[in-house]
DNA sequence: ACGCCCTTGTGAATGCGCGCACAAAGTGGG
DNA sequence: CCCACTTTGTGCGCGCATTCACAAGGGCGT
């Protein structure tokens, strides 16, 4: 088979690579703000906190966008990664749960700048409905289906208490949402074809506690005193 | 030296297993509330959303705590996992950043019930210092070192804007904190012996966007040139 | 034009994690 | 007491991910 077209990607980018692309993207954007035109894999890897061979292999999955002896063109690489991640188009996001976390998410500025538009913020509590948060008026959860359909929401964010999460998820799914980001501490079950990613604050702390305990077991000393000194 | 304690395993629990133990723990706690005395690997795996063989292998890393033909004793397993994760002791947590996210974290109830105590909430903005959040008075960031030492804080949570994160992290580290949970969208650099875990909302959304785009590519027409079809 | 030096892109080796499938072990009924 | 049934614990093979190390490729000075 002769390869006429550049053939950028073979339909299969490893999941681990996908998870790192946003990190590279952020590093590249900080470089562009500093006016750096090109960057080597070593520098970029250092900024992103990864091994340089890993970075090169990751980028090679997108295509050959570097120049040997020189490095990568920052602007061009930003465009290629953005395109691969689907950030050249806009995605509508709906958040359910206007508690502390939901409001924090709605106010988080990092979304808008990267192709994500918060289309709506829902809550079940009538006392909160109508509140103004981040330029949005909190809507009642019963309007979820309508809004998802009208605003073409494709990503749903669940920031409710655990007990409500599966119900909200089901409503998202039957309204046609196929990607869910879940902050509630429950395991959601969804049909095939729907992606769920979980962010669980309490789990992260427990993992840290495990390692912390192990450190203490090893030294058996007061771990948090005098690790410093020079 | 004979060891009285069962001494479950050597010092090697796989990282992937550690990350799942909190999930099992939560599933077990929901079973205990329902009064279930024992549970099989199949049931528990189903609740936790994992393969049953994987669950058994995970638990086998802690020791042989099941009974063949019966299953696992719920209470006993809860205790063993808690002990392994270090949740039988209390951990003091300090949060820096009393913005929306910091407040959400401070108000999140799931911590206190699992051996985590929020010792303090800091902010750099004098306008916020003194605010009452979740029963805590927001303290000025300059008191961080004192509080970390007095309250024996071992886990630091960073919920600041990106620009402030590395500085806060450095102060945590030199005050003796050896575990950091970072919500700011930056890659933190820390010396050896300090653990950092990252929670990045924007990265999660970007990963979802990637998969969402791929789903759309498959069903709709070819994005650019028909790589599909024979 | 030529050769030196730099950096990319990737073959190959290693290690880790997952899941199947089965032997070992314990329970309960007859 | 024995047998059939249930469920654990794990040996094994497979595939993915990470890292090393190096050949291929391109720029630049002379």
UniProtKB/TrEMBL annotation, chains A, B:
Ranges annotated as DNA-binding: 23-62
SUPFAM superfamilies: NAD(P)-binding Rossmann-fold domains (SSF51735), Winged helix' DNA-binding domain (SSF46785)
Family: Belongs to the transcriptional regulatory Rex family.
One Gene Ontology molecular-function label: DNA binding
Keyword Transmembrane helix annotated: no
Pfam families referenced in this protein's UniProt entry, alphabetically: CoA_binding, Put_DNA-bind_N
GO CC annotations on file: cytoplasm
Positions annotated to bind NAD(+): 97-102
Keyword Transcription included in the entry's annotation: yes
Gene3D superfamilies found in the cross-reference section: NAD(P)-binding Rossmann-like Domain (3.40.50.720), Winged helix-like DNA-binding domain superfamily/Winged helix DNA-binding domain (1.10.10.10)
UniProt protein name: Redox-sensing transcriptional repressor Rex
Compartmental location: Cytoplasm
Subunit organization: Homodimer.
InterPro entries linked: CoA-bd (IPR003781), NAD(P)-bd_dom_sf (IPR036291), Rex_actinobacterial-type (IPR058236), Rex_DNA-bd_C_dom (IPR009718), Tscrpt_rep_Rex (IPR022876), WH-like_DNA-bd_sf (IPR036388), WH_DNA-bd_sf (IPR036390)
Function: Modulates transcription in response to changes in cellular NADH/NAD(+) redox state.
Domain CoA-binding: 86-187
Highest taxon of source: Bacteria
One GO term of the biological process aspect: negative regulation of DNA-templated transcription
Keywords: Cytoplasm, DNA-binding, NAD, Repressor, Transcription, Transcription regulation
